[in-house]
Amino acid sequence: MAKFYKFDSGLTLLYETNKINKSTDIDISFNCGARCDGALPGLSHFCEHMFFSGTDKLSKEQVMKRYFDFIKTNAYTSFDNVLFTGSIITSKLRDYLSVVQDMICNSTFTKQAVEDEKEIVIQEIACEVDKHFVHASRLIRYTLYNLEYFKHGILGSKESVNKITSKDVKNYVKKYFVKNNCVISICTPLSFNKTKQIVKKYFNDIMPSNNLKPLPYLKDKLTMQDSVEVFTKEIDKNFFAISFMLPRKGPDLRYRVQLGVICNMIDDITDGLTKILRVDNNLIYYMDADYDINFENSYIYIITEVGKENIKPCLDVISTYIKNLLKDGFSKQQFEKELYKNEYYNQTKVVSPHEIKSNLERYRHYGRFVSDKEIDRLVQTFALDEINQTMREIFNSAKIQVFSYGNATKKDVYTIKQIQKKFN
User: Fold this and answer.
1) What is the Cα gyration radius of the chain?
2) Residue pLDDT, tens place only, 78-104
3) Which of 124, 151, 205, 218 shows a CA-CA span of 20 to 30 A to 77?
4) Bridge partners for 245 per DSSP
């Protein structure tokens, strides 16, 4: 049974029982990430690296060996958090908490270690240069949210990383890596009370705290305006996307799942659109549909990989498809196929403690725990009319954001007025 518990210190524990095997899955998440980098893009990611650079008692090699000897462990930085994650033998839970606590509290962050780590991170940045889809996806979020940290990315730049000092690292860690800014999500065969005792003794009672107020989770606001954004890059193709943005109806599970169903059906149909667009002169290389949702807003987007001469024809096909969809709605056959797919997936899915632990994160969205089974049951209650009504609300009231990343210029893309005319 999933449980939520907040220690007096502010440390949050999200718990679920593992009834599958004897292992424990755990995430130790600090609510910071690239959104907190400020004037030094890449600082949060750099600090994550520095936790493995050595403590006052252990060398870098010893720290690395100790952490990764748990067999399946990792750490990473996102836009929203820095996370230590592990799938471990349950008897090692105390050790794992102690190791992470020691890395955070006792890493030395020497000037030499900082300079050594700069070479590694800058090398990592260099390896990202040609990952154009990654850059495009990041810039899509930048245009949607108009937040600088999406533009700079998680790694930052060679210039920003070179500016990082030992003092910057120490100040950042002191501010954000505290127990009152931490959420531990855990799926374990241990009882809730036993788990709480272990977390308290080996983490909560030792970690520092400060007056930092918990940062909001995924509470960014969409720009909510129609626009066309073109990022020119000397590559031989373009990543072209059209997004439909709209205010969300609060933390409503039913609405969120409806968005998922709608997007899945659009994604199926894009397979057909792909064939249409490839008939004449190989118009596109790739097409996908997806959605995102946060506390206040949501959006659905269709993204393609396309030559600049085919951006407008591609948009013509998409706009025609959406106009017909608004007129006719999803068909009964399309809807029944989606319900069948969901039922099939539910019956054949192999559940793991890792997936159960990941589901705990839904607490942040809804203020309660939501399981995969609850979502699966909810999907089966939808009616075709309800889905079509939500779909029409989305496409009739949404703001349109068009995005291109590649060798296209603004003349290769329709203006917002031309686009709006095509959808009316």
Assistant:
1) 24
2) 998 999 999 999 999 999 999 999 999
3) 205
4) 299, 399
Q: Is residue 273 within 8 Å of 320, Cβ to Cβ?
A: no
Asked whether residue 214 is assigned to any structural domain, the reply reads no
What is the 8-class DSSP label of residue 388? H
User: What's the token pair of residue 295?
Assistant: 């506390």
Annotate 87-121 with b (16+ C-beta within 10 A) or e (fewer): bbeeebbeebbebbbbbbeebbbeeebbeebbeeb
Question: Phi and psi dihedrals of 82, rounded to 5?
Answer: -115, 130
* pLDDT tens digits, 116-175: 999 999 999 999 888 888 888 888 888 877 788 888 899 999 999 999 999 999 999 999
Burial class (CB in 10 A: 0-12, 13-18, 19+), 396: exposed
CA distance 199 to 215: 22
The whole-angstrom separation of Cα 214 and Cα 388 is: 39
Q: How far apart are CA 26 and CA 14, in angstroms?
A: 10
The kind and range of the H/E element at 168 are helix 166-176
Among candidate residues 356, 373, 208, 219, the one with its CA nearest the CA of residue 297: 219
CATH number at 62 reads 3.30.830.10
Domain membership flag for residue 211: no
Asked if 216 and 375 touch (Cβ cutoff 8 Å), the reply is no
Tell me the residue range of the domain where 345 lies: 227-423
Separation of alpha carbons 367 and 184, rounded Å: 16
Confirm if 222 and 354 have CB atoms less than 8 A apart.
no
For the record, the structure tokens of 60 come out as: 């870098």
At residue 401, what is the residue type?
A: Q
